[in-house]
RNA sequence: GGCCCCGUCGUCUAGCGGCCUAGGACUCUGGCUUCUCAAGCCAGCUACGAGGGUUCGAAUCCCUUCGGGGCUACCA
């Protein structure tokens, strides 16, 4: 019987989680859910100079916001914790000592300057750069000399001769000659562990069965496998590796701050829905195999297999994300749309959040739902319903001060004033009768003037519905005011 | 430089030897609809990096080449 799948997402929060990280997290999560396995979330904070508590918290919040819930990890705990590597230092130290005792690893006293000089020479000589194994077999005397010089040692893993071959679930069999995989550092001179040590130890100790991660880690896999071997793990117990293709920016370089907005926090502020982000990201490097593109989280879990993941990198396309976000917004129920919209309305000060305001927003949302792509457009769309001191946009004023417009507005006022029933049907019937039929105007001319007068802009939600929501009193007052411009 | 990965429309992709005069989606262009903006509908543009093989037949298999990317840290 196959082992129960356990997939881990293990970011190193040296900044806000970005699009690439999230795509990896999404695939990890989807694979775990698809297989009925466990999704483990681990924080790789061994580089204390770059990881901050704020970034760690932000990573946790982002995953939660996206709905990528984890079964083991920060906040939820689990039997293989702790899940912050900074809290597991003693574990790594123990293993490092064991490797030392087994002679799989050794102390290296070379200074950074010496290592740099070696690399320079190798480069100049056109040979593979990397540690030359100088400290592999130091005698006690030599060690004593180094120590007397005040040198501090790092712990290096000894790479034996030969090669490492493993099967990558996405790329097939991959092989590395050890002469191109130099002895690597496990523990810094200050005693702190490096990624190379911590990642391998944790994946084994936390019983991870599948490692789905970015392809930048592909060439570090032989090192990871070397640590498994030193730990005494049998090959059949190694995790399965699958290296996901990159998400690239417009300029065909790995996505970074330079080539586009990559922080998920930014997308959140712009009004993208988590489901849209996940749907779009799912399509970057993966497809269900048919023409389906609108995929829910539940469907993703059902359909996701590593087999369908690409081996080639994908370019991030904001336009397509926007299109999907628009689709997702249109598919929202009214209550959900309201829930997502409210924060944008209050944040911009359009509404304070009173019950009556919320009720008006709720009745107005249906008429804007199909005309926005992002939630941050909601305030602009509904502003006219809430502004205390209404004014026509400066650019639009000139369009309603001509004689025709004045006539339209005067006539509208006269026709609307006696209306006893104020709804979009009655408003439309009244305005059509007088402006289109009697005055013989083109609808876009006639209604355009009324639109500017009542909503303040040439662009608005449907006019009659807008006027209904605005109310008779305010509508008429605005038309009257427009006549004085 | 060395090692490794990758290569279908502008972009994301379908395709796993004949169903391909290469399908879908986004973008773009034109049109329809229309009270603005959208949405919706219709149409159009545009791709198998190149060169060799293998085969009756190749986007699909092999080789070479070109191009892109990653790694080459006491980062991850």
UniProtKB/TrEMBL annotation:
GO terms for biological process: glutamyl-tRNA aminoacylation. It is found in: Mitochondrion. Residues 4-322 form the Glutamyl/glutaminyl-tRNA synthetase class Ib catalytic domain. One of its GO terms (cellular component) is mitochondrion. Residues 343-483 form the Aminoacyl-tRNA synthetase class I anticodon-binding domain. SUPFAM superfamilies: An anticodon-binding domain of class I aminoacyl-tRNA synthetases (SSF48163), Nucleotidylyl transferase (SSF52374). Keywords: Aminoacyl-tRNA synthetase, ATP-binding, Cytoplasm, Ligase, Nucleotide-binding, Protein biosynthesis. GO terms for molecular function: ATP binding; glutamate-tRNA ligase activity; tRNA binding; zinc ion binding. It is an enzyme of class 6 (ligase). The keyword Protein biosynthesis applies. Its EC number is 6.1.1.17. Belongs to the class-I aminoacyl-tRNA synthetase family. Glutamate--tRNA ligase type 1 subfamily. This is glutamate--tRNA ligase. It comes from freshwater metagenome. The lineage of its organism: unclassified sequences, metagenomes, ecological metagenomes.
